[in-house]
Amino acid sequence: MNIMHPVLRRIDLNLLPVFDAVYRSRSVRLAAEELAMSTSALSHALSRLRSALNDPLFYREGHRMCPSVYASQLAPSIASALKFLNQELTPPAAFVPAASTDCMQMRSPISPRSASFRR
Q1: Could you say which DSSP state residue 92 is in?
Q2: Maximum Cα–Cα distance for the chain, whole Å?
Q3: Per-domain residue ranges of the chain
Q4: Which residues cross the membrane (predicted)?
Q5: What is the CATH architecture assignment of 10-89?
Q6: What is the pLDDT of residues 36-55, one digit of tens each?
Q7: CB 23 within 8 A of CB 67
């Protein structure tokens, strides 16, 4: 049984950080640097996302990339989803017993051994 939403099936989710970086930086070059991609690879990824969403998403105005109305509507949700996934998928910090302030209780049944504790 496939329960994935049909829209998600046609979009490469790896393209969402590309969208987010371009939206925040308003620059293909800066977004590419942030994501450690070439500008050519980022432009290609943005083109694939434009095709998948059937919207230009960004248009060039001078040296800046300005978001379309649809991109402006999507941006907060995409940023929120990426932030949530980043938080949830970050491994927990290693446990350091010496730095822990947690209280630990240890319990052990002593009734079978109570005879050895008699005075």
Answers
A1: P
A2: 91
A3: 10-89
A4: none
A5: Orthogonal Bundle (1.10)
A6: 999 999 999 999 999 999 99
A7: yes
